[in-house]
């Protein structure tokens, strides 16, 4: 089974000494956990300068996810990206103000999907964004185990909202989401190194779902988003 | 390897978030799927509003699934009959100790309401699992240090090893200083890297695996230890060795 982590950070982080501080270290971690590839945001993009696009060594196993920032001090739609991440809290912009909506419409029109961490934006803002730009493909990441009712509000209302498995760690929550909304709306992710990768990877091998649905979660869905 | 012992589990539901299937049957099924032989549990109704009813439900569920669960009686520091009631509960086969949740009960771990609980635990030689939370006014690592010194014979598990990664160094310091404090590892923000770091800091013989199921997905907790970058001998201590030692004399 091919496994692609949709939600990973490469580069040093301010809260600890992590193996993924550089690309070789990250690749070794992926090998150790039998993860074939990862969508990676560079930590400099997250925590230093979101408009500079830090350099990342070319490696077919590391799929660059640029950050996108709206407005006159932002990035526009990053060239060549199929998946971007938007971080309203970290980068201090309003997701559903006019600049944010304009960028979201550009992303939707060009078929670019967006990763949005629930901890960064909140379910209400994601609801407003998905209402304004219903064709935008949104992957809610880092949901946490307490937000299942809010996630259900979003996924019941907005068919283009998906979720990753990073911190979606309530008892059998992944199975519940997959059964109610379809496995095509669930993506394997870890949020590592800030959140755990070993647990979600083990969980992936022990899901109470048919094998074809697990394969969609493991990699099929993100590969479809990546085109 | 023998079966995994989960030192920190729960039965029941919880108000603040949805658990799509909170049945004990579903928990046992997941235990079977990932090699957990035994889970040490308290009932969430007892942690929340009603310790008496919740502890009664706990006994029913332990009896319904023979051999799969060991019980912690929740000690409510606000219940004037807590000492007598929990003493009776500890007489029941399968009950191994007390669960304290200072954060929910808003009573400090080292406060007067828990003194009888520690005295009871010392008398019975049972385990005390207390919710631990770095930065909490009720149950930070410093509170564990106080009661560990006050009751050196009590086997005290620091739940979540302090919960927040920023608090792991303080939790490790307490466990290193007090031989009767053992770190329990569950938490949604804990990573396999944190587990490895705590093993380096305090030793796996001073740590136990816990999952926080049904709050959290058991498989995620098991995987965090099974795939942690640690030696197999240390992994075995975390998954069953240390807890087996702590349970000696409790059942």
Annotation, overall tally of beta strands of chain A:
8
The best one-word shape of chain B is globular
- So, CATH architecture of chain B? Alpha-Beta Barrel
Helix-strand sequence of chain A: EHEHEEHHEHHEHEHEHH
Distance between the termini of chain B: 22 Å
Q: Provide the low-confidence segments of chain A as ranges.
A: none
3D structure, described in words:
- The complex is a heterodimer of chains A (227) and B (251).
- With 227 residues, chain A is α/β, with parallel strands linked by helices.
- Chain A is built from ten helices and eight strands.
- Chain A has one domain (4-226): Alpha-Beta Barrel (TIM Barrel).
- The model of chain A has no long low-confidence stretch (mean pLDDT 97).
- Chain B has one domain (4-247): TIM Barrel (Alpha-Beta Barrel).
- Chain B has helices at residues 24-33, 44-47, 51-64, 82-90, 102-105, 115-124, 141-150, 168-177, 192-202, 218-226, 232-247; strands at residues 4-11, 36-43, 69-74, 95-100, 127-131, 155-159, 181-184, 207-208.
- An eight-stranded parallel sheet of chain B has the order 1-2-3-4-5-6-7-8, sandwiched between helices.
- At the A-B interface, helix 7, helix 8 and helix 9 of A face helix 1 and helix 10 of B.
SSE inventory with pairings:
The complex is a heterodimer of chains A (227) and B (251).
Chain A: E1 4-10, H1 23-32, E2 37-42, H2 43-47, E3 62-64, E4 83-86, H3 88-91, H4 98-109, E5 113-117, H5 118-121, H6 123-132, E6 138-141, H7 148-157, E7 161-164, H8 173-181, E8 186-187, H9 198-205, H10 211-226
Parallel strand pairs in A: 1-2, 2-3, 4-5, 5-6, 6-7, 7-8
Chain B: E1 4-11, H1 24-33, E2 36-43, H2 44-47, H3 51-64, E3 69-74, H4 82-90, E4 95-100, H5 102-105, H6 115-124, E5 127-131, H7 141-150, E6 155-159, H8 168-177, E7 181-184, H9 192-202, E8 207-208, H10 218-226, H11 232-247
Parallel strand pairs in B: 1-2, 2-3, 3-4, 4-5, 5-6, 6-7, 7-8
Helix pairs in contact in B: 4-6, 7-8, 8-9
